[in-house]
Amino acid sequence: MNKDGTLNEVAGLYCGLDRFEARKKLWSDLEETGLAVKKEPHTSRVPRSQRGGEVIEPLVSRQWFVSMEPLAEKALHAVEKGELKIIPERFEKIYNHWLSNIKDWCISRQLWWGHRIPVWYIEGKDCEEEYVVAKTAEEALAKAQQKYGKNVEIYQDPDVLDTWFSSALWPFSTLGWPDVSAEDFKQFYPTTLLETGHDILFFWVARMVMMGIEFTGTVPFSYVYLHGLIRDSQGRKMSKTLGNVVDPIDTIKEFGTDALRFTLALGTAGQDLNLSTERLTSNKAFTNKLWNAGKFVLQNLPSKDDTSAWESIADYKFDQAETLGQLPLPETWVVSKLHMLIDTVTTSYDRFFFGDVGRETYDFFWSDFADWYIEASKARLYKVEGHSVASVAQAVLLYVFENILKMLHPFMPFVTEALWQALPGRNEALIVSSWPQTSLPRDAISIKKFENLQSLTRAIRNARAEYSVEPAKRISASIVASTEVIHYISREKDVLALLSRLDLQNLYFTGSPPGDANQSVHLVAGEGLEAYLPLADMVDISDEVQRLSKRLSKMQTEYDGLVARLRSPNFLEKAPEKIVHEVREKAAEAEEKITLTRNRLDFLKSTVLVAD
C-alpha cells in the first residue's frame, strides 16, 4: 500500500486503486470467477484516527530508531549508586524492570507538529544509504556539498521526533544547552527534585535520565517524587466517556484554590487519590477556620499606636528555655506543642512526606490552637486587669499563628499570604520569609499537666451534655486531686471555668470529696484527678426523673418489639441474614441504652431521697 491509501505495483491488477475500491473489486472478481465460497457478517475491531476518524491501515515503513541498551545501562547504574532516588522507593523495581528489558525505541512520528528529525536526504540517491545529519538546513547543505558537489539538492525527512524524545531533552535543552557555559545551565542543571505522576515513570522520567546522562554526563535530578493519579469519588479514572471529569476551574470557583491545593497535597506519594466533594467541603471549612482564627488574632492585638504594649510582646523570646519556663500553663503547652510540630513537619518535608505535613499541621491548628488555645486565651484577653495579663496571650497568639502560616504556606499560598500581610510589622512577603527554627525548647511536663486540664474539661463538658445542661448556664464544681495537681489546676481556674462553663465563685479545689458527694455527679478525669458536680445545680431533679422515666418507657417498648421479632421463627427463617444481624445489633444497643438510662434514673431517685 502507498502512503496515500492506494495500492502499489505489488497489487498487480489492483495497482493504483483506492484501498476501499480495491477491496470491493477484489470480492467482485472472486464472485465472478466462482472462487468466493460464502459471505457472512463479522464484528471486528477497526482502528480509527483519534482526530479525523479515518480507518488506519497497517503499513510497513522505514523508521528511525534509538539503540537503547547502552543508555539504559547508565540510567540503571544511577539508581544503583544512589545518584538518583525514586519516591516512593517501591517504584524503583518498576524502573529497573523496564530498563532491564528495554527494546530499541522508534522515534519517527508521522505528525504535522513536533521537532523535525534532523536528517536530510540527497535528491536522486537512495535515502537509506545517502543522508546527512545536521542542526540546520544550512549546515546540512554545506555537508552535502562537501561530499556530493556544489549542485547537490537535499530535502529533510518529513517525520517528526516522538513527543517523549523531545520531552526527554527538557531538563537541559531549556537551559541553553548545548552551550554548557550558559548561565542558566550552570545555575540550574542538574536540579534537585522532579515531581510528576507515577504513570509516566518510564515514558518521561527514565528517558530524561538516559538523555541527561548521555548528553551532559550528569543525572538531571537527584530525586523523583511520584504523586498518584486523581480519580473520581468512586476511584474511577476520569474520562469524557464516563462524564466524571472534574474541572479544576469550576472546583476553584466553588471551593477556592487553597482548599483544592490542600486536598490534592494530602495524598500519599505514588498512591491514587479519590477526589470527592466531601473532601473539598471539609478543606474549604478548614480554610475558613484559618481565616477566622486570623481575624481573632488581629482583633485582639494592641493598636499600632500602643507602643508599650508592643514592647511587652516583643520582650517574649519564645526560642529561649527561660522564657518558656516563665509562661502560664496553657501558653507553655501550646508553644511547646508548636516547637514539637516544627521539628516533625521539617523532618517530613525533608523526607518528602507532604501528606504527613498537611495532616500534622491541620491537626495542630484545628485541635490544639483553634479548639483549645484560642478559647483558653479569652480568659486573659477579656480580663479587666489590663495589658499585663493580656500581653502574654497576645504574644503567644501572634507567635504561634505566624508559624502556622509558614508551615501551611506551601499548601495554601493565597490565604496564608493574605493573613501574613495583614499581621503588623510584616516587612517581607511570606513566600520569602525564613523557615521556622528547629530544635526549640519545649516542656514535656507542662504538656502532661495541660492534658490533665483538658481531660477534666472534657469530662465536665460530657456530663453537661449528658444531663442536657443549658450551654449558657454556669454550674458549681469541686475538683479533687493531690496537692501537686491542685496547685497547677487551681492556678488556671479562670481557664477551667471558661472552657467548662463553671461558676467561678462556686469552684472549689480540695484533697477529699465534698460533703454533698452523694448528691453529685462523680467524674474521674484521670489518675488522681476527679470532679464532683452537684446535681441540683445542673438540672431540676424532679423534672429530670419524669423525663427519663418517659424516655425509659419508650425505649423499653422499642426493645420489646425488637426482641419479639428475634423470637419469631417466621422472621428468623424468612428474613435475609443481613436483616436479622441488623435487628440483633439494634436490640443489643437498645438494651445497653436501657441499662444506662435505668442506672441514671436510680441515681436521681436516690438523690431525691437523700435530699428529703
Q: Quick summary of this structure?
A:
By secondary structure, the chain is α/β, with parallel strands linked by helices. It has 24 helices and 16 strands.
Would you give an account of this structure?
The protein has 612 residues and is α/β, with parallel strands linked by helices. 54% of the residues lie in helices and 11% in strands. The protein has 24 helices and 16 strands. The strands form six sheets. It has a four-stranded mixed sheet with strand order 14-13-16-15. A hairpin with an 8-residue loop joins strand 5 and strand 6. The chain is elongated, with a radius of gyration of 38 Å.
What attributes characterize this protein structure?
single chain, 612 residues, alpha/beta, four-stranded mixed sheet, three-stranded parallel sheet, 24 helices, 11% strand, elongated
Estimate the global geometry from the Cα principal axes.
elongated
| Low-pLDDT runs | none
Number of helices: 24
* C-alpha-based Rg, rounded: 38 Å
Let me know the largest β-sheet: 4 strands, mixed
Strand order of the largest sheet: 14-13-16-15
Rounded mean pLDDT score: 91
Helical content (DSSP H or I, runs of 4+): 40-55%
- Proportion of strand residues: 5-15%
Label the structural class: alpha/beta
Strand runs, count? 16
Q: End-to-end distance, in Å?
A: 109 Å
Topology:
Blueprint: H1 19-32, E1 65-66, H2 69-80, E2 85-87, H3 91-100, E3 105-106, E4 108-109, E5 119-122, E6 131-133, H4 137-148, E7 154-156, E8 160-161, H5 163-168, H6 170-173, H7 183-188, E9 191-197, H8 201-216, E10 221-227, E11 230-231, H9 248-255, H10 257-265, E12 273-274, H11 277-299, H12 307-314, H13 321-326, H14 329-350, H15 354-381, H16 387-408, H17 413-422, H18 444-466, E13 475-481, H19 483-491, H20 493-500, E14 502-510, E15 520-526, E16 529-534, H21 535-538, H22 541-567, H23 569-574, H24 577-611
Parallel strand pairs: 2-10, 9-10, 11-12, 13-14
Antiparallel strand pairs: 1-3, 4-8, 5-6, 5-7, 13-16, 15-16
Helix pairs in contact: 2-3, 2-8, 9-10, 10-11, 11-15, 11-16, 11-17, 12-16, 14-15, 14-16, 14-18, 15-16, 15-20, 16-17, 22-24
